[in-house]
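Example 3.2
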Amino acid sequence: MAMDSAERSNPARDAIAWFPSPDNLNSSRLGTFMRCHGIASYQELLRRALDPEWFWRAVVDDLALEWYRPYTAVLDLSRGKPWATWFTGGLFNWVHNGLDRYAHSSQGDKMALIWEGDGGQVRRFTYLDLWRQTNRLANALRALGVHKGDRVGIYLPMIPESAIAVLACGKVGAIFTPIFSGYGAGAVASRLQDCEARFLITADGFFRRGSEVPMKQVADAAVAQSHSVERVVVCRHSGGTVDMVGGRDVWLHELVEGQSEECDTERTAAEDPYMIIYTSGTTGRPKGAVHVHCGFPIKGAQDLAHCFDVRESDTVFWHTDLGWMMGPWVISGTLMLGATLVMYEGTPDYPGPDRLWSMVQRHGITVLGLSPAVIRALKPHGVDAVRSHDLASLRVLGSTGEVWDPESWQWFFANAGGGRCPIINYSGGTEVSGGILGCTPLTPLKPCSFSGPVPGMAADVVDESGNSVRGAVGELVVRNVWPGMTRGFWRDPDRYVATYWSRLPDTWVHGDWAEIDADGFWFIRGRSDDTIKVAGKRLGPAEVEAAALAHPSVVMAAAVGVPHAMKGEAVALFVVLRDRADETDDVRAAITGLVAVELGKALRPDAVLFVSELPHTRNAKLLRRLIRSRYIGDANLGDLSSLENPSSLDAIAQAH
């Protein structure tokens, strides 16, 4: 059954905050696409896009993608929906479309990549520069013995060599595995072992808050556990002292020395794999999502074009890591659209809380993507850090990774965007290659909401029997296929089918709770495996957290369901305060009261617990399953590889 929807009426939140301007309607890429196909309204577009053969043919034409050999059919469903394949017979390499075709055109002298380091250093690459550097590394990889289909681990921070390595692997037809730069040896090794990587590209280290973070030592320990790895390529970045293993390790700058700046791009088939990206599960080993040349890159480019309105004139920055989906997504999507990509090595608030805003001014960033958690972390520093910089270049704001609370959404909207830039809320996943739900420059915005499905995604909200529900919370599903679907989990097809296709016939069940309100706006209410059920009433943790974050002392909040003898489950709410001196019974009671007012007395938390930090990933996504498991004393914490701050688990255990 659908999740019970508590009374959530809040006029300030429910009011439409942004309307598209005439310029949005007339000059946006999506508006142009609709006029080209005689589509008069956004709702008509969504209906037309439910025909995948028509829509995705129109998309690849709209993106002006180039094929070595044209495809003969858009879609092949002969093996069933879970195993759909696309662009039958086509020869297509995303690197040709993101780099080769621009390097010797009028775009060659255009800036492709701007990098800023933790310490403020800047490196710039035109499309021609990036093409040359990519070709040198691609030739070097071929000389090292990298062949089409070989797996190459890329364990690098967000430096230019990360993008160059991704491009070089695609150019030679290898399959790269992006690995989060903050992982320990065990997590790195599990990914190298699972995909049987023959090669690893890493760095000596990187900088975080002015301090060197070693990588090579971690890589060495991981390779010692990964017997498939034959060679390790090391980028000199931090300048730290490292041990080089003779016959196995080679410096990247020595490897590319003397290599030609010309290199043929492998003429890969549309369905040839180009990336295996791992996503952590609640239990068990991480899942290796397989993506192909005509899948993830096309879906990402379409989303950036149609949702975020990225044009060749744009400069795009998304605060992420290569190991998270948004890293490869922003690299391939931005370059395929011929825009300028900004990469940043450091943290959002170092050396001061204005770091990101100074970057917007310094590099003329026009499209800025930040997670709600980053905004929640920056908000306590006040608005002066934002307003001290000229942010006039911004025209689109983006967000993904977590559910918004209304106060943080309004803060981002009013201060970063000046009330004029839409926040393109975006939700999907690693296995999706981008968004299931999104906003567009053509549709009004309510705080925290989505306009609806990303064009081309047959999304719905359903009860446990698969019936559509409106005005109540249900499961987010996708009823038809799209090119960005993972082609299964690496050498584990049964797990892929069980994860997404086993609950409802021919329907992708994504694992999110969602709701469509009376005005047709969509909302994510949290992960369905994070669902809390209090005396038969289901609610998502994001609703509890949003209510708590309305208290001026609360910086972060996480709600979980814990066992209760009478109710089945009760809400336990963990909060981080601005000042630990505020950890009083009065503040606890005030937070409880806010939740009761917002959600009803029956759903107020049984416990409000003060902690110094909450467990999260590097990109600030809360790990609620770990909070719950640690709090209730569950010895099986599952996969910890994405955890950024292990000390937070001690804080949970000591919560009061």
